[in-house]
Write a structure and sequence with these properties.
Shape: globular
Order of helices and strands: HHHHHHHHH
Number of helices: 9
Number of strands: 0
Largest sheet: none
Radius of gyration: 18 Å
Strand content: under 5%
Number of domains: 1
Structural class: mainly alpha
């Protein structure tokens, strides 16, 4: 069911997007995220908590699509940031915010502070305020993804880790993007940014498996009794 996603990622890197009109570029860039939306939408929810989580992630993915399209145009960078910030809010609500695993919080906000110190000299106008706010939302979402990873005690290594990996990859993607845009050009920036971004979105989407797996284990335990 994830084959369209991987095909979309391949197509994104195969075509020279900079030579294409805006609409075609937007369609190709957004297709992997649309594939994740389709994957999640077609997955049947087994209980109300899972339905709520899936709904929030779907909204987050939809907002991410809007952000992806906006970022194609340089003059729409701030609207794109707003769309992605709202997506992070949806993911935070889906994953749940808990003041646990404080070591992750200190680490992530420490990285956020260092990155902000590096980026601030290159920020002007509204970006002076927008970038710190967005960075805070991103760090918080990543913290939530890591705490969700450790809160869910299920017998599957990759399922229990996929959420945290997704959050870290997305934070890595945005850190490279910001450094490339506001500080200095990063070699192979498009590959680094988009591969980590797409895989980050995949990880967040697959975090729903934690809910599905926990539900299956609960049902199995009830049947055993």
């Amino acid at each position: 069911k994830l084959i369209p996603f991987f095909i979309g990622v391949f197509v994104y890197f195969y075509f020279p997007l900079k030579q294409l009109p805006f609409l075609q570029r937007a369609c190709i860039k957004c297709f992997p995220i649309l594939a994740l939306i389709g994957f999640l939408y077609l997955r049947e929810a087994k209980h109300s908590d899972e339905y709520k989580c899936r709904k929030l992630i779907l909204i987050g993915l939809s907002l991410s699509c809007i952000g992806d399209a906006f970022l194609i145009k340089a003059n729409l960078f701030i609207p794109g940031m707003i769309a992605f910030a709202l997506a992070h809010v949806m993911y935070i609500l889906a994953l749940g915010f808990h003041l646990v695993e404080l070591k992750y919080g200190f680490l992530l906000y420490g990285i956020y502070t260092i990155m902000l110190y590096i980026l601030m000299p290159g920020l002007t106008g509204p970006l002076i305020y927008a970038v710190p706010i967005y960075g805070f939302m991103l760090a918080t979402m990543t913290w939530c993804s890591l705490t969700a990873m450790n809160r869910c005690k299920i017998d599957s290594w990759w399922i229990s880790r996929i959420t945290g990996i997704g959050g870290v990859l997305w934070m890595t993607s945005d850190a490279v993007l910001a450094y490339n845009k506001f500080v200095n050009e990063v070699p192979y920036q498009d590959v680094l940014i988009m591969v980590s971004y797409y895989l980050g979105q995949l990880g967040i989407t697959l975090s729903s498996f934690i809910s599905w797996k926990k539900y299956d284990l609960l049902m199995d335990s009830k049947k055993a009794k």
